[in-house]
Amino acid sequence: MLVILPLLLVALGGGAIYLNLLSESEAEARIHGSNITSLLSTHTNEFISNRVDAVELLAGETLLRNSPLLIGNDEPKDLFEARLLLNRYCKTLNASLCYIMNVKGDAVADSRPPETSIVGNNYGFRPYFKQAIWGESSIHLALGVTTKKRGIYFSSPIISAHNKIVGVAVIKFLPAPIEQRFAEVTGFASLVDPNGIVFASNQPDWLYKSLFKLSPQRLKKIAESRQFGDQAPESLGFTVDSDNNVSGPSAQNHLLEQVSVSQLPGWSITYLYRTEHITSMEHPNQGIAALSIIIILFLLTLFAVKQLYSRLVETLRSNAQQQKDLERSEHRLQNFDKVSSEAIFIHNSEGIVDVNKQAEKMFGYTHTELLQLKPDDFFSAESLPVAMEKVRTQSETPYQATVITRDGTAIPVTVNGKAVLWNGQKARAASFRDITRRIEYQKRLMASEDRFRQLSDLVAEGLLIYSENKIIDVNQSLCELFGQRREDLLESDLSELFSEQSLTAINNHPDTAAALELSLERADGTLFPAEITTASMQFDDGLFIVLSIRDISRYKEQEEHILYQAQFDLLTHIPNRFLAKDRAEQAIRNADKHDGKLALMFIDLDGFKKVNDSMGHEVGDQLLQQATRRFVSCIEKQHTLARHGGDEFIIIQEDIADPTDSEIVAEKILQQFSNPFSIENKQLIVTASIGISIYPDDANNYSDLLRAADIGMYKAKHDGRNRFHYYTQEMNDIATRKLALDNSLREALQNREFNLVFQPLICNVKGQPKVQGAEALIRWTSPVLGQVSPVEFIPHTEQSGLIIPIGRWVLEQACQQAKRWVDDGQEDVFISVNVSPRQFKGNDLLRDLTSALESSGLHPHHLNIEVTEGLLIEASPELNNTLQLITDMGINLSMDDFGTGYSSLNYLKKFPFNNLKIDRSFIKELPDNSDSAILVTATIAMAHQLGLSVTAEGIETAEQYNYLRGLRCDRLQGFYMGKPVPANEFSFELAP
């Protein structure tokens, strides 16, 4: 018993000593870890601060401020000089890359050789460019877009001599110098971003991974930012308890120290280090239980004592190693002058025991003078109580204070206090960092925020900023949009504004995607369509999302209106041609599916154009509306009525049993249109011409079916209007011929397919017949269609407008030929040319006549222009003026086809004609038809009385020729005297 008791006493005493040693060792280890972390943070800040100054120095270089490269001029000399400067900076600073960008973000010069140059690449999306272009220097840590390597990008605006931002200077550094410092420590040291993503570390496999688990939403936003590549970062899976003990797959039983990097807001130095004694203290009660058993069993007591002794030896060895680490920490503290830009005071209960050179520089005192100062000598009256309280409580929380320098200048500083060893004694280190520039920046930032607030309230779109589904801020437009007060929304949950479905859509919406369209609800319960765009913004205190919300109610209404306009006719409110096509194609598919038929009716209103032109478009519109109502009354609900355009309508009859079923509808329409329309107290007669085609009998697709119905409609018009006509193959042949004519005519003039022939005009000269002139007639030889009669192709040229360039060509060729005849001795010759009514529209004809005469050199009195009575039916003052100008030029005017109109005598009196041409329909019956003979005789006599000459055309017999000569007809034309021939075959000699 006496033996056991001493052993028990030894065991208990040893345990007490052991626990005391463990407690002191842990405290010293924490101080040691804190010192190392602070030292690494100081070095990182120093590294960054120096390089901020460097990039600002580069941006201030006169060569860059005045560089033509930044304004789009890329002369080789300018590029060479810029590269020399950038290379010099890169080599001096041991930087990875130096380059400059214009205001668009395009790299215009860099320090790399041409084969790896980034010139031409655009980096306008990078945050360091965006911040610099707004006038602030920037630091951005990211993975290179091109190199896929880590880089610390320092940027600064390039400001011209005119105080205008003209570009951005960038210097890229590798994180190697920071990681070299990390490699000197025994624990796990890392530089991490605000999300806990490792950017630099002495553990290479930790790079781009998060220390702690992040939410899926946060991971998605990080990937979308592309700061560390396109993939979401993996997690190292660390967890931290309230005592800063860290556990995880890569580190067990470690302590955590974190110190912010003031130069990188939100970033920090993270240091994980191991304490060997922590494991033994996890279950202290087990030791007590073991000691209790020793009382009973001596052998176990001896074993416990032995184990205690072994553990004690191990602990003492660990303490010795930690003591060495503390001494190394002390040595590093003593060398702060070499790495720190902060003023550092080492003090204990007796006062200040040491300061660094930066302290002398900041406060303006000598080293000796600083050692004699008391806190109230350099802290302001407001800051002194705070500083003393921090020392009293041994607080290590950074705080802001104001210090007074020797010359009385007040400097705002950030103070960091830490427990340290100094000359083997416990002391406290206080670092003072001048934050004057930061305060100024914060003031500018606050002013900027005020301006932003004012500006955002002027923006029509609603703006909302949130983080972790909590609303941080909104603008006035958003309050008005939702009918809510700003104070009610701030700090509230997003679910107050958005439904669960809307929230899911917003949270899953990438920043780079197109705007999101959602239906949102106002405070009064009304719904409205909204367009939402999202933008992620990383600040010191976390990730924030900005929503821009625009009420698109009016846009949607306009969209619906546009959609309606795209499918319906706004005048008649029935489907338009596009919707008709869609419905017809659906009907065709149904017919194919059920082996059925459908009819398509193409309807044109007869006489509508005359009403529209004479009574105005307003009356025309009313007429179309009334016609639509009549069409509707004739069809079934399942049929489709559509306005194809103008006065053309379409009716689609689905599922007809027999093609004759459409006759019933056609007859109803004709019956309805037999009654006059009453508009503005006027009775208007407008009828309908209807063409009908049947699917699949007449066509196998909509386009051909519509074309077939159109052909049927034109046949109905040709047969007298106010009727319907089914499509036939014969009609198709005619339409095909018409289409071929139209297509070939468009290239005929360019391909020189036209030629002129000339028919002689016989005049009575001193009682003797003589060939004195010719009528120029056009002929067309098509390589596709062969010889085409003018009777067939001239109407097509008038409809298409091709008569204008073709008529111009005829005038030019005719005048040139007449000039050649004049030059050959035919001094009294004249050339007669037909002019279409289309050529009289505008001033083209006068210009064409002038051009033809001037280019050929022909005198105007050799030219005779023939116009038809059709031109004169709708005569206007402009037409009369044009005809007068033509005669004033010296050109002769002839009325063609005289006798076929209704006001021929009036025309002779009203217009300045020199000649009239009797239509061939009167000549062909001479001399046997007495009526024709009387009319021709009277016409010639009347014309001579009016001072006009007379031309008779279509003379084919000797009897006709002799009869007209006997009536003293001035000019004779016809096959009897000569057929139309080419110029080289034309003769001025009369045929025997």
UniProtKB/TrEMBL annotation:
Superkingdom of source: Bacteria
Alphabetical list of InterPro entries matching this protein: Biofilm_reg_signaling, EAL_dom, EAL_sf, GGDEF_dom, Nucleotide_cyclase, PAC, PAS, PAS-assoc_C
Primary subcellular site in the record, as a coarse category: membrane
Keyword Transmembrane helix belongs to the record: yes
Domain EAL: 738-992
Localization, UniProt: Membrane
Name of this protein: GGDEF domain-containing protein
Gene source species: Neptuniibacter caesariensis
Origin organism lineage: Bacteria, Pseudomonadati, Pseudomonadota, Gammaproteobacteria, Oceanospirillales
